[in-house]
Design brief:
- The protein is an all-alpha fold and 311 residues long.
- Helices cover 75% and strands 0% of the residues.
- It has twelve helices and no strands.
Amino acid sequence: MIIIPYKWLTNNDNQLYPAAQFLVFIFIFLLVLFIGNVIGIGIVAALYGLNTIMALGTVTVTAPHFVTALWIVQITGTTIPIFLAPLLFAKFFTNDPDDYVKPGFRFPWVLLVVIFALMFLSNPLIELLSNINQKMVLPPWLKWMRESEDSAQKVMDAILKMNSMWDVIIAVLMVGLLTAIVEEFMFRGVIQTIFVRWTKNTHVAVWITAILFSAFHMEFFGFLPRLLLGVFFGYFVAWSGSIWTGVWAHFLNNSTVVIITYLFQKKIISGDPNDQHMFNNAGYAISFIIVGALLFVYKRITTVKDQIPVE
């Protein structure tokens, strides 16, 4: 039996106050994350031995079984905990789980078309923010952040090393779809809902959640573009009332990276997917105007939907 201090509960429904909800959720997430990592490391040690564990720790991508072991630890130690934590929290610590995870599909399907257009036409803005981010200079005592990002890039390069279409399909499903689902359930589902109730302001909640989302990835030099993506995902979910609009946008972003990386590896395209100098100032300005217009259209569609009487 879990004993919850009475002062943590709201007066009207015996549900935790939003601030207490956030603390409880963080505790659940860290606990599940710890258990998942222990299980993942245990599986890798049992299958491949301690040398593979050491290779993971030192990011020795050329070590035998490195990629397979990386997938095992990634799934058990990160993906599953990110998915389980919001579900456990919504089930056992809220009075309305569906309001937190928002699993419904009742939204105008034309929104998916608007999202598709916005995600691709926002690329110049993403590039602009990435270039601004790259020019930021870290103080010497934060040099470890650059080294950490370099290690993370080596890991991602190993994950996205694709030799066949089967590898592409797996990467799209795992990096594109599965990652989108679990991260959206946690951030735009539970965390954003907590902050909507806490701040009583959707815009504040969307931006706070986007900041946490970007910070969670521990990549300083990708913080600003990921922040903008988090804002997009946040408004998509907040205005539609469904987590699946955020999942769709997240999937499009991740899957595009996977596919472009594969095409570049096979020399089908010449443009480096890491190149952040494809657009000019005019492109940035046009992208800003179009994205703003598409967000307005998206909001307008959801507003009209909400005004239609239910018979």
